[in-house]
Design a protein that fits this description.
Number of helices: 13
Largest sheet: 2 strands, antiparallel
Mean pLDDT: 96
Strand content: under 5%
Bound molecules: benzoyl coenzyme A
Structural class: mainly alpha
Strand order of the largest sheet: 1-2
Shape: globular
């Protein structure tokens, strides 16, 4: 029988060789816990992330926009399901994860605690929020845990369509009349900073980054990904002809990156602690949806039992 030290050594060597860790492989308890935490927070973000856009289905400006928005929101539900399944392979059941979300114990992305006030926000969410999600998730396609990495590959394909549909909404508004362009600008003003916060605390304040990088759960730090997002997004804002609300934003020739202003970390902490503009509403809506969906779960269970009796 191998001792703990030997198991740990072999585990790290496997990760360093870029081999995937699979559900039945030996893994340190901390690795399992970190993954359950991150994957479940990610799954909750996908599910809660349906809410701000869901509010706009009945108010989409035309049938085409409505069909696209519906499809996008359904995709987010699917992403939540892949991710809950990936978390379940680590030995935790879905009911426990959902209870943790509904009781307010589990975190989900801060971004979904901001309100979607205008149609332009559907554009900004697609462009900036899905854009930030892609930057983070493309890196996660190479995460060390097999089921999470495979879920990410599929999610990224859909996410890039989401990002483009958001950008296209804003492009239409920016090519429209003055009021439409103003609406697009206002939306960028409100979503820019919360989008940068999606990448988490700065590296010096990030509790989990060092461990997660060592285990290759995360492939880039929070600040590295945030910088990638800024560098990618500034030229896109220029094409739209709207201004990113940051006076410190400027190209730094020496670094080969954009410099940008300081994030309001007080606001970030406030939102993460449950005190953002929509935290309470989001959880109330999720609880209501869960209660109202009880009959669907009961029906599915009754059907599954009936089928298994027949097979037996
Ligand atoms: N909001 O040590 P850190 C989407 C927490 S949605 C809230 O850096 P880590 C989409 C963090 O959890 C995008 N909490 O942590 C859906 C930790 O708390 P605990 C969701 C945050 O894990 C629909 C503490 O702060 N994407 O795609 O190393 C429509 C310390 O942070 C946030 C993912 O979840 C935040 N923004 O790094 C459109 C991606 N940031 O657990 C789009 C997967 C940090 O100690 N997740 N916290 O209580 C990750 O990549 C990492 O978990 C993070 C944080 C980069 C988010």
């Amino acid at each position: 029988m191998k001792d703990q030290e030997q198991l740990l050594k072999e585990f790290q060597e496997k990760i360093d060789r870029e081999e995937k860790i699979e559900p039945k492989d030996w893994m340190p308890e901390e690795y399992r816990k970190t993954l359950i935490r991150q994957i479940s927070q990610h799954a909750h973000s996908e599910v809660v992330g349906m809410l701000p856009e869901g509010n706009w289905i009945t108010r989409a400006p035309n049938l085409r926009r409505k069909a696209i928005l519906l499809a996008k929101i359904q995709d987010e539900a699917g992403h939540g399901l892949y991710l809950y399944s990936a978390a379940e392979t680590l030995g935790i059941d879905r009911d426990t994860l959902i209870d943790e979300l509904l009781s307010g114990k589990a975190k989900y992305s801060s971004i979904f605690n901001y309100p979607a006030l205008t149609w332009a926000d559907m554009g900004a969410i697609g462009w900036l929020v899905d854009g930030a999600a892609i930057v983070n998730q493309v890196a996660l396609c190479r995460t060390s845990y097999g089921p999470y990495a495979r879920a990410m590959v599929r999610i990224c394909k859909e996410e890039s369509f989401h990002q483009r549909q958001g950008y296209e909404i804003l492009l239409a508004l920016c090519r429209g009349n003055a009021a439409q362009k103003k609406m697009a600008q206002d939306s960028l003003n409100r979503w820019w900073w919360p989008s940068l916060m999606m990448f988490g605390p700065s590296d010096k304040n990030s509790a989990h980054t060092a461990h997660s990088m060592n285990w290759k759960i995360k492939r880039f730090t929070n600040d590295e990904l945030r910088q990638k997002f800024v560098d990618m997004t500034v030229p896109q804002a220029n094409v739209l002809g709207i201004k990113i609300p940051d006076d410190k934003l400027q190209w730094n020739e020496q670094r080969g990156h954009y410099d940008f202003g300081e994030i309001n970390w007080e606001e970030f902490n406030h939102v993460v602690k449950g005190n953002g503009p929509c935290n309470r509403q989001r959880l109330d809506d999720r609880r209501k949806a869960h209660e109202e969906g009880q009959w669907v779960r009961d029906a599915a269970m009754a059907y599954a039992e009936k089928r298994s009796n027949k097979i037996a």
